[in-house]
Amino acid sequence: MEEKMKRLVLSILLLLASPAWAQPLPSWNDGAAKQGIVEFVKDVTAKGSKDYVAPAERIAVFDNDGTLWAEQPAYFQLAFALDRVKAMAPQHPEWKTKEPFASLLKGDLKGALAGGEPAIGQIVMASHAGMTTDEFDKTVRDWIGAAKHPKTGRLYSQMVYQPMLEVLRYLRANGFKTFIVSGGGVEFMRVFSERVYGVPPEQVIGSSGKLKFELRDGKPVLVKLPEIDFIDDKEGKPVGIQKHIGRRPIAAFGNSDGDLQMLQFTAASAGKRLMLLVHHDDAEREFAYDRQSHIGKLDKAWDEAKAKGWTVVSMKSDWKKIFSFEGTKQ
Amino acid sequence: MEEKMKRLVLSILLLLASPAWAQPLPSWNDGAAKQGIVEFVKDVTAKGSKDYVAPAERIAVFDNDGTLWAEQPAYFQLAFALDRVKAMAPQHPEWKTKEPFASLLKGDLKGALAGGEPAIGQIVMASHAGMTTDEFDKTVRDWIGAAKHPKTGRLYSQMVYQPMLEVLRYLRANGFKTFIVSGGGVEFMRVFSERVYGVPPEQVIGSSGKLKFELRDGKPVLVKLPEIDFIDDKEGKPVGIQKHIGRRPIAAFGNSDGDLQMLQFTAASAGKRLMLLVHHDDAEREFAYDRQSHIGKLDKAWDEAKAKGWTVVSMKSDWKKIFSFEGTKQ
């Protein structure tokens, strides 16, 4: 029994030291947003509360780009795709004369993207398909461990919002299961979601390409095909949630019109629900953009949030710090 | 602190009472199959073992039909579909003269299925599409609570294998996350997977139809479209696992050739792995079928199991009881 007793004591100490006992959300200023989150969690977890929700049904969904990590000056996954095309160019001499690759390799990003969505599609497919899932995993792992954000010079995986990490931890400490539901590529995000967000790969929902099972020298692999399977954005988000989770979330976090349907879907079920939008209004510490932005446009969802009383977070006034590295040297 | 202390004491008592401390797999006879499972679990969970696997990576996948519950004389989901068509017939006068519905409604199942896969497809689509996911959930819930197996007269949800329920519990008590990976419909299985197997909806992977997000009177719903989205069988199983879980299982349980690729996929990663096939060889207590069967054919996978030393369970000799109701009156 001795070893068992030791483990029990250790479990108790860990429990007492867990965030559940500490003051929640230390990087949040006191205000309506923080209060709204804390009261929601109290109401759905207190036994006997009329809003009580059983732990198995405490599903919280988070958009990624612009909600958990930054998305300016461009989606980080696009930076990955561009870096991959450059790295793969020696194996593709034909790209020297073929758009959008020719412009891209000359350093003319604007020219490369002039072809619009089809051009972006070609860049994404060239960098995300034609290899096995294991090979893709490795290229993302190598990239995310080294590539740096053009403005801050920090690793992309450091460009995560400290207050949102605290929300993820706070919800999990209160029996929630946290999911990422993002327009980003599911196999891209899964490489770092567990380490960076504490969200295991099986709780990441995203856009995806088709896969093909193959035996290569008798060894089973999955090959990434250059064909879209599912786009997890806008109307796709509730669909992705249903396909993957099979029940409605009780809390949903987003930052743009791409998250509107996910918040509507969450709001529509009976009981107390939390719908939250992060508003990027801090040009100094991060970026300021909303109705007019091409990336992370916040327009219709903002109006609906105001009309329905959903929580809108001001990064400028609700968050004490945005990135964990603030105040530290690069 | 008093309330907290009470909870701690309760947690400890629950921990001590948990299956982890009891003798595992009581419905299994001692033998190579049971020993193989127990040794595998010991090896991958003992710290310091060369085969140790971190809890987050302890993924176990289970086929459903023929592995967790029975599949004879026909897949239970087909029985559901037939019952639905009969119940919906008054709203579909045109079915009286339209095959496969006309034969089906006259009680001529053989005639109805004479049209082969297209006929089955029409029956499945009529019973599984054209309604919201909430509506479908309710029809399955009503059916599974009342419909009975033609041979035993028991509820279909009682036709589950007691020894496999013990494996599910034993693995979870040892830090595994258990998933269902079945050719059956994902939204069909999710209705009862948590209650019957202890597997929450988000850990059920199956075949699915396309979904469409709609606002009905301002209320968001998901409509089930009469179009296949994904078939989670054979080569589809590793694909479904990758789409949904994003890492390779370390244990896989099946019973037919439809599970072969899932077992191959599990076997191929480095480290100690458990691949197990249930062989239906007990005509008296259940059903006996393998190489020649139209349902749950076990042929190629059986040969590969023999060649590679995977575990093959004889229901007749490895299981003390098959159903929990054995020895009780109906």
Produce the secondary structure layout.
The structure is a homodimer of 330-residue chains.
Chain A: H1 2-17, H2 32-45, E1 59-62, H3 76-88, H4 101-105, H5 109-113, H6 116-128, H7 133-144, H8 162-173, E2 177-185, H9 186-197, E3 204-216, E4 219-230, H10 236-244, E5 251-254, H11 260-267, E6 274-279, H12 300-308, E7 311-314, H13 315-318
Parallel strand pairs in A: 1-2, 1-5, 2-3, 5-6, 6-7
Antiparallel strand pairs in A: 3-4
Question: Can you walk through the features of this model?
Answer:
Two copies of one chain form a homodimer. In chain A, helix 11 links the parallel strand 5 and strand 6 (274-279). With 330 residues, chain A is of the alpha/beta class. Chain A has a seven-stranded mixed beta sheet with strand order 4-3-2-1-5-6-7, sandwiched between helices. Chain A is built from 13 helices and seven strands. In chain A, helix 3 packs across helix 6 and helix 7 crosses helix 9 (186-197). The A-B interface holds A 8, 11-12, 15, 56, 59, 133, 177, 186-187, 190, 194, 200-204, 208, 211-213, 215, 219-220, 222, 229, 235-236, 238-239, 242-247, 261, 264-265, 268 and B 8, 11-12, 15, 56, 59, 133, 177, 186-187, 190, 194, 200-204, 208, 211-213, 215, 219-220, 222, 229, 235-236, 238-239, 242-247, 261, 264-265, 268.
